[in-house]
Amino acid sequence: MHYNTGENPRLTMCDVNDEWTVVIDPDTMFWALISNKRDLQTTLRDEVIPRYLEVKDVLAEEMKKFRFEVFPTAVYFNAVDRCNADCLYCYIPKPLRSTGRKMSTEEIRTALHRLQDYFSQFEMDGRKPVVVFHGSEPLLVKDSLKEVIDEFDGVFHFGIQTNGTLLEQEDAEFIMERGVSIGLSLDSPDQKTNDHIRKLMGGGGTYEKVTRAIEWFDGYEGLNVVTTITKYNVEHLPQMVDFLHERGVRAALMNPVRGTQPPAVQARPDIEKLTRFFIAAVERAVELTRSSGRPIVIGDYANLVLGIVAPLGRRLMCDITPCGGGRRFFAISADGNIVPCGEFIGFEEFRGGNVLASQRDIERALDSEPFRKVRARVVEHIEHCSTCAFRNICGAPCPAEVYAVEGDMMHKSPYCEFFEHIIRHAFVLIARGDAKYVIKEKDFDYKYKIMA
């Protein structure tokens, strides 16, 4: 049986490490891990290609729908421009954080009613659309948020992403009682480092208040701690895993800083260090989960593992091409403007409509030129990415970051080499049978095979 010529199957072979080779069709995300102890050609002919031919058409159709369907299920809602913090890498322009507006309770309510009307058109299989109150700092209007969370409790699943400094214990109890998801930002287990990166407007830093808030949530399943990786904290990632696990945190996000503003570009970590310490953090999380029976998962890495073993099961929409911005979610700014993603707040050219103007502005925004422009950014059109075997695992994020730096979106990710290394690491983790410590394997019907 032939391959990679004429009408024959097209499969790419990549070295994973000295022990494993992966054979992959990037377009369908069919793959097989083959031990280097095996005869590659015999394994391809007798096992891999016959299985590939059985499933490739179904996989191709599933991937096409997953990648290109415009079906928003989530909204990132910035009800306030202002912030009480002055983090050195913030993606919100500083003038907005200092003097920007706050939505009134009535404006938030109006926007939520219009979102409710919009989502009511769609069959969502019993799932509620998600509304995440996001930064700048949403708890500057926490009384308004509590009011609308109670009012729309049966309509949306709510989340809050906060720097944590305005949380009181009664707020934490409110959040847990109502099943609201909560993300707290903490950049290092070392107070001096965290407070250098995450300063408060009036002086000092966020560390003490955030660590106190983590204790209030005491293992709450809806808690996730977000660490933005910069050159200042990259070496602390493994210790951060220990720190969070000791405090009962089950889920962490460790995101390399997005360079959508000049100070953030200056804060980017060295790629070699980022790769080394991120993988060390992943390995520490796996070891703690295995040895303690109490899980801690690094969500960014888990999403890449899902992108390999169960692409349609991915939760985070940044590692997809086109990304989820303007397709699976959109964002609303404090003046009501609708943009494809919160990373585009501050870029006037990416405004598609205004939720406070009219109900129809949501539909208009989704069909607007800025939104279509973001959806048109696919790896097939990016020179460096178009022939990469990992192109539909990585997704070349982030279009807003690339646009901010390059002036257009059709360039590779500044973290390309990092993604390449951690995707290879993910294949190694799968090969050694450790995916179960990163994702819930029982939830998925896998179509891959490991050939030892």
TrEMBL record:
Its cofactor is [4Fe-4S] cluster. The keyword Cytoplasm does not apply. Keywords: Iron, Iron-sulfur, Metal-binding, S-adenosyl-L-methionine. It holds the Pfam family Radical_SAM. GO terms for molecular function: iron-sulfur cluster binding; metal ion binding; oxidoreductase activity. Residues 69-295 form the Radical SAM core domain. SMART domains: Elp3. Coiled coil: none annotated. It comes from the Archaea. Belongs to the radical SAM superfamily. Anaerobic sulfatase-maturating enzyme family. This is Peptide-modifying radical SAM enzyme CbpB.
